[in-house]
Design goal:
Layout: H1 3-14, E1 19-23, E2 41-45, H2 51-60, E3 66-68, H3 79-99, E4 104-110, H4 135-154, E5 157-163, E6 166-167, H5 177-187, E7 206-207, E8 210-211, H6 212-224, E9 232-235, E10 241-242, H7 243-253, H8 278-284, H9 292-305
Parallel strand pairs: 1-2, 3-4, 4-5, 5-9, 6-8
Antiparallel strand pairs: 7-10
Length: 308
């Protein structure tokens, strides 16, 4: 019942699949899916660290495929508890796939695995540094190595999804600058960018931004396409978008939006800093449904109706 999970569940519904979604601490009923609750969407409260409960949910609902879209919380747990929850949760979900003869399990990795790479485009076959700046980067690298090894030993097809720059309806942490900008524009207030991670963004800094509905489509295609040629796929925007382009797109929708950026680019800027989507496009026929302008317009419209 997370941000990406609910949009992905909606995408599966749209292609004719019934869905079981799990929740643990946060309950959400967004308008785009709540009418299907207890109909085509079954809901289970589930702690993925409880192995028997994971197996029980899989058995009772006769699950035929699993999308594991968990992400480590930002400094939410102690280092030891963070490790226990993330690693034990992964093991339990993988073993459920094994014991119930599930053909394919797709597991959310992240574009943060490319943090130590100095120049893009970022491709799935690149060598990555062992060092990690954040818990998300560390756990996702570890998940890729361990889950793919587990898949080789069990015969279950494991597909890792390097999800990039996710933003859009339901995003609630406001850690990303594009979300802060859109929220401020929808509310008609100046964008508070100084208190975000990294401070006020630079105009020329770029990011691979993946609108959540585009990513949900990519996840669904990678889960349901009969034959895949790889085990790791980038799923993102596929473009290095300058921050000034974000501001222009927002002001196209809200001309009076109050957004101030720093000129130039920061030391963190990387040439061609985006994920290459060739694998995803070639193997699944993926084409994004939203470009930056239409995504910004839809997101701001949604925020105006669903303020939080």
């Amino acid at each position: 019942m997370g941000f990406t999970g609910l949009h992905t569940a909606r995408q599966f519904l749209d292609v004719g699949e019934d869905v079981v979604i799990s929740w643990y601490q946060t309950w959400r009923e967004p308008s785009f899916i709540k009418d299907e609750y207890k109909k085509r969407v079954q809901i289970e409260r589930l702690d993925v660290t409880a192995g028997h409960d994971v197996l029980d949910v899989t058995r009772r609902h006769k699950v035929t495929g699993i999308c594991h879209l968990a992400v480590p919380g930002l400094a939410a747990l102690s280092p030891a508890e963070d490790f226990r929850v993330n690693m034990l949760g992964l093991i339990n979900v993988l073993e459920a796939a094994h014991l119930f003869d599930i053909k394919r399990i797709t597991v959310a990795s992240s574009q943060t695995v490319y943090t130590g790479v100095t120049q893009g485009p970022f491709r799935e076959d690149m060598s990555l540094p062992v060092e990690s700046r954040t818990g998300t980067e560390a756990f996702k690298k570890a998940w890729e190595i361990l889950a793919l090894h587990w898949g080789e030993r069990t015969g279950v097809e494991v597909v890792m999804l390097r999800l990039g720059g996710i933003w859009g309806p339901l995003y609630h942490t406001l850690a990303s600058p594009i979300s802060r900008m859109c929220h401020a524009a929808a509310k008609g207030v100046p964008a508070d960018l100084a208190s975000g991670r990294g401070g006020v963004p630079f105009e020329d800094d770029t990011q691979d931004w993946g609108y959540v509905k585009n990513l949900a489509l990519g996840i669904q295609l990678l889960h349901t396409t009969e034959k895949l040629n790889h085990k790791i796929y980038n799923v993102g925007g596929g473009k290095a978008v300058p921050n000034r382009d974000l501001v222009d797109a927002i002001k196209h929708v809200v001309p009076g939006a109050q957004i101030e950026l720093q000129p130039g680019r920061s030391p963190r800027w990387r040439p061609d800093g985006h994920m290459d989507l060739t694998r995803l496009e070639s193997d699944t026929g993926y084409k994004p449904r939203f470009d930056l302008q239409t995504a910004v317009a839809e997101y701001i419209d949604w925020l105006c109706v669903n303020p939080f």
